[in-house]
Amino acid sequence: MTTGGGGGGGGAVGGSAVGVQIQQQSRMALPDFLQSVNLKYVKLGYHYLISNLLTLFLVPLILVTLIQVSQTTDLHHLWLHLQYNLLTILTCSGVLVFGLTLYAVTRPRAVYLLDSACFRPADHLKAPFRSFMDHSRLTGDFEESSLDFQRKILERSGLGEETYVPEAMHSIPPQPSMAAARAEAEQVMFGALDNLFQNTSLKPKDIGILIVNCSLFNPTPSLSAMIVNKYKLRGNIRSFNLGGMGCSAGVIAVDLAKDLLQVHRNTYAVVVSTENITQNWYFGNKKSMLIPNCLFRVGCSALLLSNKPADRRRAKYRLVHVVRTHRGADDKAFRCVYQEQDDAGKTGVSLSKDLMAIAGGALKTNITTLGPLVLPISEQLLFFVTLLMKKLFKADVKPYIPDFKLAFDHFCIHAGGRAVIDELEKNLQLRPEHVEASRMTLHRFGNTSSSSIWYELSYIEAKGRVKKGNRVWQIAFGSGFKCNSAVWQALRNIKPSPNGPWEDCIDKYPVEILT
């Protein structure tokens, strides 16, 4: 069980690597990105807001006009007048039809999350710290200094003793074959999908869109084709396979599904997010490439999305916003998490010394764009006025830090590493209960890459904390460098789905994590 390998992929490593860089090597902390805001990203957020003004104001305007007319006009006389004025009738009818048509055409279709399912591996795949270190030593590939480095990372990572690694990594020596990698992919994907289909009573033939994301394992035929073959999905299914996009790829996949559901009416979309560890364990001694071995663990999530209006009554959530940030145009950002070979020809993922600064910049950009879409007007005014005074009038004022707790009830911060969670808790002024789901997911399941935010949401649901109208913020980041956010609104009081990953252990949490 030498494990946990770079399963998160080039991008997936980004999230966890950020955390461990702080913990292990005492490099600079995540930048205080709320203290230095770029005005152009505020403008971008307000641009998104203004783009939806027609939808926001057209219906209320029509209602107000009708109420005003009914209060100030004798409707009987108006009807008698219209009977003898064909031009007026045609004009009014035309305006009404045009307005309603314009509204119907420009209004985006609602996207509902009917349910999500997370895979929970068998107990024999657990990887306690001592077994991890013993197996790593027995492989004979690691120098003593490399073993000591991994031990220190494990101790400070925030992971617990019950995380999982794939079957092939429990062998001595490990067996990272193509067949073993396919077996891992089938186990986690089919396990999550079986739970999803069982909980939603969905027939696989009813799926119209299938999206799978996995960073570092992209065989031929693809992972999406494996699912089509397993469940005998229909021949005209629109299937997509996203590779190399890291820990934030789960949000990217949801965004792609959302766009496709705007085009295809009355359709179900299934999104599968996973990472593959078997062939991505690093067997070298370069410290910047050893970190993923200690953090990444087995995991997978499956979501069922729908744009059918009738599904609203049984859906758990409605998708409100997706905001994506990509810093790949900058060379340093592009190379800060980079898959390559070391001097001995062994493949792994290298982490740049600039990783923390780049991650902070991506996070700052993302939340600055998201703010105008979600923050209450009072928070926006305070933030915007102080920003203008500082940027335009060069006033010596301390920037106002928006209170995102007023916009969101629950937070799902990618469980990439304990230090990242610590820094976001500090910068966003969150309370311990707001980051509890992230910390406990990291402790119980490790870094499961793009699926981690769904294990976190499952934790919050298992605790019975999601009430009707609550808003959930999912935020993840990965190589490229990318930072992506998704905002969901609960349509009812949410009960945990059967066969959830926390079903038999939720009462044990939260646990105290030693520093």
Task: Write a brief caption for the model.
Helices cover 44% and strands 14% of the residues. The chain is built from 17 helices and 11 strands. Its EC number is 2.3.1.-.
Describe this structure in words.
44% of the residues lie in helices and 14% in strands. With 515 residues, it is an alpha/beta fold.
Mean pLDDT figure? 85
CATH class group: Alpha Beta
Number of helices: 17
The number of strands is 11
CA-CA gap between termini: 25 Å
Helix-strand category:
alpha/beta
- The ordered H/E elements are HHHHHEHHHEHEHEHEEHEEHHEHHHEE
Report the CATH superfamily.
Answer: Thiolase/Chalcone synthase
Based on Cα principal axes, name the global outline.
globular
**Which stretches are poorly predicted, pLDDT < 50 over at least 5 residues?**
2-28
In percent, how much strand structure appears in the residues?
5-15%
In the CATH hierarchy, the architecture is 3-Layer(aba) Sandwich
